[in-house]
Amino acid sequence: MRxxxxxxEKNWPEFLGxxxxxxxxxxxxxxxxxxxxxxxxxxxxxxxxxxxxxxWGFETGVVNNAVGYxxxxxxxxxxxxxxxxxxxxxxxxxxxxxxxxxxxxxPAGEDWHFPPFDLTESDEVLYGRGILDNKGPIMSCFxxxxxxxxxxxVPDKTLRILFGTDEESGMSDIPLYLEQEAPPVFxxxxxxxxxVVYGERGVVGVTIxxxxxxxxxxxxxxxxGEQNRASVPDQLSVTLTGTGETIQVxxxxxxxxxxxxxxxxxxxxxxxxxxCEALSTRLRAYFSWxxxxxxxxxxxEGINLALADADSGKLILTPVTFQKLNxxxxxxxxxxxxxxxxxxxxxISGMQQALFEGAHLAVTxxxxxxxxxxxxxxxxxxxxxxxxxTGADGTPVTTTGGTYARxxxxxxxxxxxxxxxxxxxxxxxxxxxxADLKKNMEIYMAAIEALTRND
Length: 455
Known about the structure:
Layout: H1 4-23, H2 40-55, E1 59-63, E2 67-72, H3 91-94, E3 96-102, E4 120-122, E5 125-127, H4 135-150, E6 158-164, H5 173-178, E7 186-189, E8 192-193, E9 196-200, E10 202-211, H6 214-217, E11 231-232, E12 235-239, E13 246-250, E14 254-255, H7 265-273, H8 281-294, E15 308-309, E16 313-314, E17 316-326, E18 329-338, H9 344-353, E19 359-367, E20 370-371, H10 377-390, E21 397-399, E22 411-414, E23 416-417, E24 431-433, H11 434-452
Parallel strand pairs: 3-6, 3-7, 7-22, 8-23, 9-21
Antiparallel strand pairs: 1-2, 2-6, 4-5, 5-24, 9-20, 9-22, 10-18, 10-19, 11-14, 12-13, 15-16, 17-18
């Protein structure tokens, strides 16, 4: 039996050097450019992965300038030349096992203690934007594939590692891939948690626009502070134009699917503004509604929408952005992650009934939940690998997160975070313990070998 731990330790220094190259690319989504629909930096990350794959003797391809892949052809396609470009109509290579990760990252933000776009090790912990989400995990899969090849393993089934470039901003890269390529027959994305994730909650984003008189909103400046749908905002401020007073709040950032780990600056700001005498009675009432409905009420209890089920637990509700839309409108955006047995229509109906007077709701993001057979043979293989590597219970689970498994058929999420690890990915000083990344590489090498062998 192959000793994955020994192989990991032997190759670790070289792997860190490769990972550092990828971490130093600031692959935040940018303006579209020729050959780079999601910006030059995500494309630069993809190009590095392709160059590494070619240098290690694998086949490579780039699909619609959106997703790159590195392919290890199995014995079923052994007649193909190792470095020949993959033909899109080659049926043997279209039946493949897939590992789907992404190289794009969210913006770094401020107040890091380590360089965000680099790889820094301190006290057995690795730091840098993307070390967990998702450069560290997908590169451990990629490098693990190289280690297995160097160790003499030859897969029976073809393996592709796919490098996406737009996961953080809507996953529009995967439909572009599927325009030209067949999906894998099975595979995983190392972009969630352990054990095997067989179900993902539905996600729906809404924007609630509320109308006011221009004279009322003239008392408020624009809202200042970084906001995005991926995170709980931590610092916001607004200025009262009549007095010149600036009202600022300081919360705590956390991922939007774990709002209980943060302190939401939107609701904190609403709480302060609800008592501000300089504002109109109706405007204060609006801020009272916002505060009472959503402040530290993460599970829908503030709007009579506390839904739950046995598979996935409670609905999660997070205010993610708040802005003065124009001279007569305020806009509040919410992210719902609802149980797998609940429908989007139920969530929207409940929210409609709880709207402030004069408000209008629009759906801005819709990702229905997914459920896979947790007793399927491939899932059982991955469960056994996880249990053997960790000694922990590997009973498959569901998640509040949204991964490529929603967009790519036949994919489930598997790793990289271990039970109890939550809320790390999008924060400043994003980190991953050295021991955890090593364990991931061991698990992923075992998974590659198990999934690409003939049963």
